[in-house]
Structures are given as structure tokens and as C-alpha cells.
Specification:
By secondary structure, the chain is an all-alpha fold. The protein is elongated and about 100 Å long. Helix 2 packs antiparallel against helix 3, helix 2 runs antiparallel to helix 6 and helix 4 packs antiparallel against helix 6. It has two domains: 158 residues, no CATH class; 34 residues. The termini are far apart. The chain is built from eight helices and no strands.
Length: 196
């Protein structure tokens, strides 16, 4: 594998896609975290709601870059339907994020999170910043979910067509065409013999 292949051109190689997805995920995560922290720190929005706003921005960034650089060939050609599938996987990721952040939240959906109540990090970190630790954990877990779900749910069949499955189908088509051509030639020869 050449270094150029890691960055340039379409690919269905899982390792290269995973590598590229790390970059895209980093950019999307930075956008997500920035928006979440801005909403929480500047607008004083509860952690869970701030995380949702961050998620929406991160999802949009992730989809746009992923659809052109990581998974260039979608199973579904309609971009709206493709985005809906991408978003559904992302929404499941958002649910996972919310569940992971909840124990770290001062103002969680179910009240104060258990790690805040226990003051898990003691004097190392103010309790009103625990949600950032939860978000970092969520990023790692949800990244794995998003990549593999998108790879194997949205894009797997397309990549199989690019590989051996398509080559097998092509050889079957060639065999069928050859058989039809042979049949037509035999009929022509038989008709010529009969006319003589």
C-alpha cells in the first residue's frame, strides 16, 4: 500500500477507509465539541441539549466529507436517502452519546449525574466540566459504532460489486452471451444447410 493511496482516490479497502475516517471523525468531532462547549459555556444550555446541537453540526460535517472522501460509492444513489441512512446511524450514535454523558452531567436529563454526585475526579476537575470527560469517552465509542455501521450497512454491497462478486457476475454474463451467440450461429448454420 502506497502512502498516496491513503489520501487520494476512491477506495473500498477497509483499512484505508478506517484511516481516512479517523481524519474526518477528528474534524467532525472538533466541530461537534466546539459547538457543544459554546452552547454550554456561553449560552448556559444544559449539557444534553448542547451535545445535541454539537451532534447536528458534527453529523453534517462528517456526512459531507465522508461521502466524497471515505465512502465515495453509496449503495443508494439518491443523496437524500443516503443522508437519511447516514443520519439514522448517527442518531443511534447520539443516543449512545447521551447515555454516556448522562452520568457526567450536572444538569442531565435525569438530574445530576452519578459521577458528579460522587465527585469522581475530586479536586482534579471541577464538577461542571465532567461532561467533557463523558464526551471524550462517547467520541471513542460512538466513532467505532458509526464507522462500522456505515461501512457494513450503507456501503458493503457496493464494495462487493466492485470486487469479486461483480467479477463473478461479469463472467456469468459473458458465459450466457457466448452461449446465446453459439446458439444463434448454430441456428444460422442449420438454416443454411436446410436451404441447400
Amino acid at each position: 500500500m502506497k502512502i498516496k493511496e491513503l489520501f487520494i482516490g476512491e477506495t473500498s479497502h477497509t483499512g484505508i477507509q478506517f484511516f481516512r475516517s479517523l481524519f474526518v471523525g477528528g474534524i467532525a468531532t472538533a466541530a461537534d465539541m466546539l459547538v457543544m462547549i459554546l452552547f454550554r459555556e456561553l449560552m448556559k444550555v444544559p449539557e444534553g441539549i448542547a451535545a445535541m446541537f454539537g451532534f447536528i453540526v458534527g453529523l453534517a460535517v462528517n456526512y459531507i466529507v465522508s461521502s466524497f472522501w471515505v465512502f465515495a460509492k453509496a449503495k443508494v444513489k439518491n443523496r437524500i436517502i443516503d443522508f437519511i441512512g447516514f443520519a439514522v446511524i448517527g442518531i443511534i450514535g447520539l443516543g449512545l452519546t447521551q447515555l454516556i454523558i448522562e452520568p457526567f452531567a450536572v444538569e442531565g436529563m435525569f438530574g445530576q449525574g452519578i459521577f458528579v454526585t460522587w465527585k469522581l475526579f475530586g479536586e482534579l476537575l471541577p464538577v461542571d466540566k465532567y461532561y467533557i470527560v463523558g464526551k471524550v469517552l462517547a467520541v471513542v465509542i460512538v466513532y467505532m459504532w458509526n464507522f462500522f455501521a456505515r461501512k457494513f450497512i450503507l456501503y458493503r454491497k457496493v464494495e462487493e460489486k466492485d470486487g469479486t462478486a461483480e467479477k463473478g457476475a461479469e463472467s456469468i454474463e459473458k458465459t450466457e452471451k457466448t452461449e446465446k451467440t453459439d446458439e444463434a450461429e448454430n441456428k444460422t448454420e442449420t438454416a443454411e444447410k436446410d436451404s441447400k
